[in-house]
TrEMBL record:
It is found in: Cell membrane. The keyword Iron-sulfur does not apply. It comes from Blautia segnis. GO terms for cellular component: plasma membrane. Pfam families: MatE (PF01554). This is Probable multidrug resistance protein NorM. The chain crosses the membrane at residues 12-35, 55-81, 93-115, 135-156, 163-185, 191-215, 317-344, 364-382, 389-411, 417-437. GO terms for biological process: monoatomic ion transport. GO terms for molecular function: antiporter activity; xenobiotic transmembrane transporter activity. Multidrug efflux pump. Its main location: membrane. Keywords: Antiport, Cell membrane, Ion transport, Membrane, Transmembrane, Transmembrane helix, Transport.
Amino acid sequence: MKQRDLTKGSITGNLMLFALPLMAGNLLQQCYNIADTLIVGRYLGANALAAVGSSYTLMTFLTSILIGMCMGSGAVFSIRFGEQDHKKLKEGILHSFGLIAAMTVVINVLVYAGLPLILKVLQVPAEVVPYMRTYLLVIFAGISATFLYNYFAALLRAVGNSVVPLIFLAASTVLNIVLDLLFVLGFGWGVAGAAGATVLAQFVSGIGITVYTLICFPEFRLSREELHFDKRVLGEIAQLSFLTCLQQSVMNFGILMVQGRVNSFGTAVMAAFAAAVKIDSFAYMPVQDFGNAFSTFIAQNYGAGKEKRISQGIKSAVTAAFVFCLVISAAVCAFAAPLMGIFVNASQTEIISIGVGYLRIEGAFYFGIGLLFLLYGYYRAVKMPGMSVILTILSLGTRVVLAYTLSAVPAIGVTGIWASVPIGWALADIVGVTYYWKKMRRKSELG
């Protein structure tokens, strides 16, 4: 498969061609959990749907630690590729793989040891606990597969190959859906079957992309002489990886805190939130991946020292994100009820009504999160992941505080949780853009 050098050629054309497979890939990745949600919601009932929805939030938070570290490492890989420094690229591969593999083991141990406490902290209703415990015990058996896929996908994307990760993800998504139907409807294994289908599909993509990369990219293979650790290299990888990991974890921890507040409103709100979040994520996921593609573009050009090309790329990316978000916002707001009907039986009118309220509030402001993803990508690519952490804390901190504060007012109730989200996006956007312009002005004055 062809590698794409983003330091040359058409900016908008290359950026879009690189981004499209990422967008398609993450939409497919959403299908993992959407398949579970659709089948569980339709055939196993509201309690099972609530369990899978809450499990997804927890799973996203914990796997975001690994995904964040992979994204941070990917930024280093992109910079080295832009510099054309293959020796340092291989050093980065060695150190980042060892670091993230060790973190994978730690997370697996902590999840299984702390499961009773996790269920208590999340305020899971008693009738949902058995379903959620079963689902989590199975789903986290696949965390090593999640690491393998995201690590090698980050490596391939860093050197301009966004197609191969898409191919492996597509194959495993189809397998996931087939196994969901077989395990849940055919064998009657309930939520354990839904989780097992996802785990097996994840191993197909994780092992498959690992084998492909080692066979088809011999330049990434390490010789015995290269298998030695360097504290300096490990420090650089660790700093960028852990700060990106922190940014991802803070983001998902905030969502997890909100999930706890949602759970306190009962099963109907939990089920509505579970379905609406899948639609919400599916809607803005393409612009999140566009932000990741934008980050690779910035990192490669940052490594190559092409500042003018970076400025031009920023203008193109913001314009494209705005147009996309405008279209998606209109579609989600207009079709909120039919979209909820995909996941929830038409007779569950209360659940559908709650979900529609969520989608119309979130959907009207998608450009807020679209711009935020671009800011995350930019600051990660120019070795300023700490700024991404600050923006995430502002966004999610605002969201959590307002969610708990507003929803405590009887006249506002659960609507306060939904309204807190776009307010958090807006605050982070204002700070991120202001800091960028001040940074540019300072550089202009010094230059």
